[in-house]
Design a protein that fits this description.
With 152 residues, the chain is an alpha+beta fold. It has one domain: Alpha-Beta Complex (Peptide Deformylase). It is built from three helices and eight strands. The strands form two sheets. The chain has a five-stranded antiparallel β-sheet. It has a three-stranded antiparallel β-sheet with strand order 4-5-8. Strand 2 and strand 3 form a beta hairpin. The longest helix has 16 residues. It is globular, with a radius of gyration of 14 Å. It binds zinc ion (ZN). Zinc ion (ZN) binds next to helix 2.
């Protein structure tokens, strides 16, 4: 496994729309492993492929330690409720904002075997689903933040 470099806001790669994965190749599996290692190394709760320079619809999330969620070609298929809470991003270090996100989110995705599965998350996990899936469409949380919590 290898730790990857995380692109920072201002890099145009973060603003591009990612293409779906059409075949789960060894390269995709290696990317999933490397993304998880990179996320854990920096203490993040989620990482999307464009953040490491790969314009493919791949996300890893680990809101609860040891519970890694790998999402290939994820789509939000249902959501409900509402939460306002702090949000940050590994590509926007040192900044935090308040966002409004659904409280419950269900995602449909492929796992690393190419099988379709649905997963529902609430609270932090719901927020992570929204945040990371937005990355796949070139969107950052600062675009939709109600306000930023900058110290200056
Ligand atoms: Zn992010």
């Amino acid at each position: 496994m290898a730790k990857l470099r995380i692109l920072k806001v201002g890099d145009s790669t973060l603003r591009k729309v990612c293409r779906p994965v059409d075949a789960i190749t060894p390269r995709v599996l290696t990317l999933l492993d490397d993304m998880a290692e990179t996320m854990r190394a920096v203490g993040g709760a989620g990482l999307a492929a464009p953040q490491v320079g790969v314009l493919r619809r791949i996300v890893v999330i680990e809101v609860e330690e040891g519970q890694l969620i790998e999402l290939i070609n994820p789509k939000i298929i249902a959501y409900s409720g509402e939460q306002e809470s702090e949000e940050g991003c590994l590509s926007i270090p040192g900044r935090w904002g308040i966002t409004r996100r659904p409280m419950h989110v269900t995602v449909r995705a492929l796992n690393r075997k190419g099988e379709t599965f649905d997963i529902t998350g609430s609270g932090m996990l719901a927020k992570a689903f929204c945040h990371e899936l937005d990355h796949l469409d070139g969107k950052l949380y600062i675009d939709c933040a109600l306000r930023m919590l900058d110290t200056e």
